[in-house]
Design goal:
The complex is a heterotrimer of chains A (about 425), B (about 425) and C (about 350).
Chain A (H helix, E strand, L loop, with lengths): L15 H4 L1 H34 L29 H34 L4 H15 L3 H15 L22 E3 L2 E4 L1 E4 L5 E4 L7 E4 H31 L6 H19 L1 E4 L2 E3 L2 E3 L2 E4 H28 L2 H9 L4 H31 L11 H13 L2 H30 L5
Antiparallel strand pairs in A: 1-2, 2-9, 3-6, 4-5, 7-8
Helix pairs in contact in A: 3-4, 3-8, 3-11, 4-8, 5-8, 6-7, 8-10, 9-10, 10-12, 11-12
Chain B lengths: L22 H9 L4 H25 L9 H10 L11 H12 L8 H18 L9 H16 L1 E2 L1 H23 L2 H30 L3 E2 L9 H28 L3 H16 L2 H15 L8 H27 L2 H9 L4 H31 L11 H9 L9 H33 L1
Antiparallel strand pairs in B: 1-2
Chain C lengths: L3 H16 L13 H8 L2 E6 L7 E2 L5 E2 L1 H14 L5 E6 L4 H6 L5 E2 L7 H5 L3 E3 L4 E3 L1 E6 L13 E6 L4 H11 L4 E6 L2 H9 L5 E5 H9 L7 E3 L7 E3 L2 E3 L3 H20 L6 H5 L5 H7 L5 H5 L5 H9 L2 H8 L29
Parallel strand pairs in C: 1-4, 1-5, 9-10, 9-11
Antiparallel strand pairs in C: 2-3, 6-14, 7-13, 8-11, 8-12
Helix pairs in contact in C: 3-9, 3-13, 9-13
Classes of the chains: A mainly alpha (about 425), B mainly alpha (about 425), C alpha/beta (about 350).
């Protein structure tokens, strides 16, 4: 006969913190936490005592003082009397502009080059390989200064446009001037403008929004929405009856006519650049520094994106292409309907990290004098105020926020296109 | 009915393929002009290549190797009939290439960086070409991290030995403590012992040994480092130091211990989320503020620390990729053998994961190496920084392309050969896995 | 093999740091910079990354220039060896932190003496080695004769200095518009200016003259008459270390006085034996105990002058009219010759 006994009651002993796997992980975590806090406290303590010794306690008050310097490319109104905070805001907008433009161009270039690298044309495939290796294996900073130097040295100066027999002339029916100070293109103007909406009053973050632009965006959005509705209706009819009503003329009209009416109401015209005094006046001025940075970052990142695209396409099994051929699709249709949509799933995650890299590399703007946030907040503001800790910390936080936003958006998109496996 | 006029009874002799299908013409038809679109592409490419070469080649072929200043070059070019002084001024490269490569390193000691980097190849050989080099060479690889700084910075030989002794002491303490107490305590005590040795005892002990038996080579301050050598040094040190940190971070990120995991994730995402230039700003302006008052160490060391932190975040992600690529069965197999966590990592997981990660590590290295040019922005004289200093010489004021071209060439040769090697390795490793 | 021993101590902390950077508390707290420099046997001197005539490394990696000469003179005065200097290249951004953190002992990097740098950033300017001012350079064929005619011009600025603030103030107060092009280094600014990417180049007048001197055709460019700021450039040290500040200040004064008193590197050995002029004797140490008061030996000024010559010789050798830079003495002549150089008496 055997009697059932309760398992021996465990007494908690101190040594179990070390030997018992149930408690050990807790012990390790407490130690890790403790060590981490100790390190952080040590760093903060050092920082505070050092700053006290230097007589510069942490103080963000300087942000409201006048910056005192001018910024050439400003998307909002700014003068040298505005505060350091507003100067930093201008820099942030400039960073976002160049990152946005760079990502778009790099993607387009990268896809083209990646596809051409797989071309059956021997010469083109080799050239693209040379391009990719050349750009991937030379530092991006070198490319940036290189592109800037090329722009400066090869394009004509504005004074070459002057005189009876100018050495250089404007292109595209005198509407675009390509100079080594940048490119001047016509700008849209409105004779019966709705004016601007002033947001945030007089604060450093004040923000003017053009009501004309708003009106255009609203109308465009509405017409696109209507156009989509018409297409969906056509789809439904096609599914029900098998006949697809021709809708392209209606859809074009829905988009074009309201826009044309709106533009006419607003009195739309183009302002052309004109050589006056030292520089071209009027038109939109795309500065050299912006173009150099934009171009260099795009070309550099495009080389990486091309490799990603190539790898993505090669990852799609040959059977997919063959099946598509068997269905009678032409080679461009095979690419756009069968291979690329599948390759996209392989391509997107590394593409995200390349967008992030491009954004972070835009901080090298300092090398060409493009006033991004590193040039304003981390450059002149830091120099003038001597507040290194505050400026660098804020600079890092801004970049961190941008990075996290981009990766958040792209991860969300990645989730959306992910292969839904059953 | 059998009114067949002609039945061939013997085979026809084989004919040559049509001329348009073989040889250069055939090749061109197939590879260059297979369709109208391809033909356009080919012609456009040929034109582009022609224009680029026509612009660059005459410029490169310029008889100015002996030029002593920019104006001297211009005279030479004008005399040689290069129109519009269009030609490179190679004199600047002839005069400054040594400086662009070695910076301000004392010229009679150039053998030391050269030896350090040649030995680097020897130390990496057993890792990179494991099938061809005897594995006993690994002992040298393990010692190399101590030889490398000694060769570059010089000084007494007792310093690297004292540093090495820290690892030995830590290892011994771990061994005894692990046997006597527990593995966890062993790890903690071992690390603590090594830290105590390095921070408190190593300097006096090596000083004492040095006064008894002074063996050493001439010390070179890190301020003397510059040019391409500085880039390579930063790259190599950052990658070497970031490897162990990266492994720890990667393991931490995969760990079940929530606090450890979030500390690691926070660190990795923070470093990866900010540009390197901001970290270099930290190195140049803030790092001294974070240290105890009165601490002062030179800018190169501070840059090394920040670039190492930067590289370790990327390294952690590469190694995490390697860990994720291992089949689940490897982990389960290790568990079923009764190995504990560290044994499993050391004997089963890490050797395989690291092997898979080597291509990733090499490309991280290329990335970090290219990014070392950023140090010119905080005033270090890497090749790009030196190019500005050279252009501040009255003789070479106004030179642009020659310096940029030379620096680009240096980087290209270095990075390209490494990326080729990495691709070769990738192919080799792939066949091993399928 | 010799020579490594002195550096072993410092090297220790450096090497250790590479292996365990927490162990870096070894750096000595700076009790007195003068003692530190003497103990180290080297002077750490911050200079610019590269500016023609003021500081640039030559092909052998030796630094040369007007600012460099100040560092060498101080090293000669303190250590008796004008080559015992470590030159630390600094940018506009890193220079003040490098000095504040003790990475360098003094900064001789054409830095403008301003109120906020002196008072707020806590530095001590030890004198002025070059009186400068911000000017404008334009191509002659632009037909501009005054900066006030520059409405709408594109202006290249070397950033990281007081230049952009002066410029903004100038254009604002004259109510004219301009397009600033900020550029990091002088070499790049020069490139943009020559290619016509900007109409005007503005920086310190000495820098403009130095830059113009290296052009293919210097005659095709003019400096406009307006000098829109005062830029007294001088060496600086940390606040609160008066002994060290005195050493740097009086070394600079010794160079200036030497020129005034007619001491040159040629007649130095003769004069240091003793002359009729008691001030020369006090300066060169054959009379009085000035060196001792500074915490240096009696021949400190002799060594400083012997290393580089007096102020006038340094000026002539690096940036004077016979050099490619070709600057006239102008404001930087002795007070006896209508300039601003006025060294306090050695008494």
């Amino acid at each position: 006969m055997s009697t059932l006994t309760d398992p021996p009651k465990e007494q908690f002993r101190l040594s179990m913190l070390l030997y018992d796997t149930r408690y050990r992980s807790g012990t390790i975590q407490v130690i890790a936490m403790f060590g981490f806090m100790l390190l952080a406290a040590w760093l903060i303590n050092n920082t505070l005592s050092n700053l006290a010794a230097l007589g510069k306690p942490i103080d963000f008050g300087f942000f409201s003082e006048p910056a005192g310097y001018d910024i050439n490319q400003r998307l909002l109104e700014y003068t040298s009397r505005d505060s350091h905070l507003r100067a930093a805001l201008m820099g942030l907008l400039n960073t976002l502009v160049v990152a946005f433009l760079g990502c778009i161009t790099a993607t387009i270039l990268g896809v083209i080059i990646g596809v051409l690298r797989l071309s059956s044309n021997w010469l083109v495939a080799r050239l693209m390989a040379v391009y990719v290796e050349l750009f991937r294996n030379v530092p991006v900073l070198l490319w940036i200064v290189f592109v800037m130097a090329i722009l400066i040295e090869t394009l004509p100066a504005p004074r070459a446009f002057r005189g009876e027999n100018p050495e250089a002339t404007m292109s595209l029916a005198d509407s675009v001037a390509v100079t080594n100070r940048g490119v001047y293109i016509p700008e849209p103007l409105f004779s019966r403008s709705l004016g601007d909406a002033h947001l945030f009053g007089e604060s450093s973050l004040r923000f003017d929004v053009s009501l004309d632009l708003m009106a255009i965006l609203v109308v465009l959005g509405l017409s696109l929405f209507a156009s989509i509705k018409i297409r969906q209706r056509a789809d439904r009819i096609q599914e029900a009856t098998g006949d697809r009503p021709a809708t392209w003329h209606v859809r074009t009209a829905v988009v074009v006519v309201p826009m044309a009416i709106l533009l006419a109401v607003l009195g739309f015209y183009l302002g052309y650049p004109e050589l006056k005094g030292f520089n071209f006046k009027g038109g939109t001025h795309l500065r050299n520094s912006l173009i150099a940075l934009w171009l260099a970052l795009s070309l550099y990142t495009a080389a990486f994106i091309a490799e990603i695209v190539r790898a993505g396409i090669m990852a799609i099994s040959k059977g997919q292409t063959e099946a598509a051929e068997a269905l009678g699709l032409r080679s461009n249709k095979i690419m756009s309907l069968v291979v690329l949509p599948q390759a996209l799933r392989v391509i997107i995650p590394p593409l995200i990290s390349n967008y992030l890299n491009l954004t972070k590399n835009s901080s090298l703007a300092i090398a060409v004098g493009y006033m991004d946030i590193t040039g304003t907040l981390g450059g002149i503001t830091m120099n003038q105020t001597g507040r290194e800790l505050e400026c660098v910390l804020l600079l890092m936080l801004v970049y961190l926020a941008i990075s996290l936003t981009i990766s958040g958006i792209m991860n969300w998109y990645n989730e959306a296109v992910k292969l839904k496996e059953r | 009915m059998s009114d067949i006029g002609f039945v061939r009874t013997e085979m026809l002799p084989e004919q040559d393929p049509p001329a348009s299908e073989v040889g250069i013409i055939g090749w061109a038809r197939h590879n260059l002009f297979s369709s109208w679109f391809n033909s356009i592409l080919t012609i456009a490419s040929f034109t582009a290549v022609y224009f680029v070469l026509a612009a660059i080649v005459p410029w490169i072929l310029s008889p100015t190797w002996d030029g002593t200043s920019l104006s001297n070059c211009r005279e030479t070019l004008a005399a040689a009939g290069h129109g519009d002084a269009h030609g490179a001024c190679w004199g600047v490269i002839k005069e400054r290439w040594v400086q662009l490569i070695f910076g301000f390193y004392p010229s009679h000691l150039y053998w030391r960086p050269v030896a350090a980097f040649v030995l680097l190849g020897a130390a990496l050989a057993p890792v990179l070409f494991s099938d061809r080099v005897p594995s006993k060479m690994l002992i040298f690889s393990a010692l190399y991290p101590f030889i490398f700084p000694w060769l570059l910075w010089g000084g007494t030989i007792w310093m690297p030995i004292a540093a090495l002794a820290g690892f030995v002491i830590g290892g011994l303490v771990y061994k005894f403590a692990a046997e006597a107490l527990s593995t966890l305590l062993g790890v903690i005590l071992g690390v603590a012992a090594a830290l105590v040795w390095w921070m408190l005892l190593a300097a006096p002990v090596s000083g004492a040994l040095d006064s008894i038996l002074p063996i050493g080579i001439e010390a070179v301050e890190s301020r003397k480092f510059g040019g391409f050598m500085l880039s390579v040094t930063i790259g190599v040190v950052a990658i070497a130091c970031s490897l162990p940190i990266g492994i720890v971070l990667a393991l931490g990120r995969q760990s079940d211990l929530l606090i450890v995991k979030y500390i690691c994730v926070g660190f990795i995402e923070f470093i990866r989320g900010v540009p390197l230039i901001t970290l270099l700003f930290v190195a140049s302006t803030l790092l001294n503020i974070f240290m105890p008052p009165g601490t002062n160490f030179d800018i190169i060391l501070r840059v090394l620390i920040m670039v190492t932190l930067f590289a370790s975040a990327y390294m952690a992600e590469v190694i995490r990729g390697g860990l994720a690529a291992l089949p689940r069965g490897q982990y389960e197999g290790a568990d079923s053998l009764g190995l504990n966590y560290w044994q499993a990592q050391r004997l089963i997981i890490m050797p395989q994961a690291l092997k898979i990660s080597i291509p990733g590590i090499v490309s991280t290295f290329i990335g970090v190496f290219k990014d070392t040019t950023l140090v010119s922005i905080i005033g270090l004289l890497d090749p790009l920084g030196l190019s500005n200093a050279i252009r501040a010489d009255a003789n070479w004021n106004g030179i642009v392309w020659e310096l940029y071209g030379f620096i680009a060439l240096l980087f290209f040769v270095f990075c390209f050969s490494m990326s080729r090697y990495s691709m070769y390795l990738e192919r080799k490793l792939q066949t091993g896995h399928r | 093999m010799a020579g490594y021993q002195e550096e072993v101590n410092m090297k220790k902390s450096v090497l250790l740091g590479a292996m365990a950077f927490a162990g870096l508390a070894a750096g000595a707290a700076s009790a007195g910079t003068l003692d530190d420099v003497k103990a180290r046997g080297k002077l750490n001197c911050g200079v610019t990354v590269g500016l023609v005539g003021f500081a640039a490394p030559n092909a052998n990696g030796e630094w040369e220039g007007f600012d460099v000469a100040v560092c060498r003179a101080v090293a000669a005065a303190v250590l008796g060896d004008s080559t015992a200097v470590e030159f630390v290249p600094t940018t506009g951004k890193t220079r003040f932190t490098a000095l504040a953190s003790g990475e360098i002992d003094m900064l001789a990097r054409n830095t403008t003496w301003t109120f906020s740098r002196d008072v707020d950033l806590k530095f001590e300017f030890t004198g002025v080695n070059y009186y400068d001012g911000q000017g404008f350079m334009v191509p002659k064929d632009l037909g501009v004769s005054s900066a006030k005619e520059l409405d709408g011009a594109t202006v290249c600025i070397q950033t990281g200095t007081t230049t952009e603030l002066n410029l903004a103030d100038f254009f604002r107060s004259n109510n004219i518009s301009y397009e600033p092009v900020p550029i990091e280094t002088n070499a790049e600014a020069q490139q943009q200016y020559l290619a016509g990417a900007c109409d005007v180049y503005t920086t310190d007048a000495s820098g403009l003259a130095a830059t113009r001197a290296t052009f293919d055709d210097p005659g095709a460019h003019v400096l406009l008459p307006e000098i829109i700021s005062k830029e007294p450039l001088g060496p600086l040290v940390r606040h609160g270390d008066n002994e060290w500040g005195d050493v740097v200040r009086w070394t600079l004064n010794a160079l200036v006085s030497a020129e005034e008193l007619g001491i040159t590197s040629a007649n130095l050995s003769e004069m240091s034996a003793g002359t009729e002029n008691p001030e020369i004797n006090r300066l060169l140490g054959s009379e009085g105990t000035l060196g001792e008061m500074l915490g240096l030996d009696a021949t400190w000024a002799q060594k400083a002058i012997a290393s580089q010559g007096n102020y006038g010789e340094i000026f002539a050798k690096n940036i004077g009219e016979d050099t490619p830079v070709g600057l006239a003495r102008g404001l930087n002549a002795q007070w006896t010759e209508g300039g601003l150089l006025y060294a306090p008496p050695f008494r």
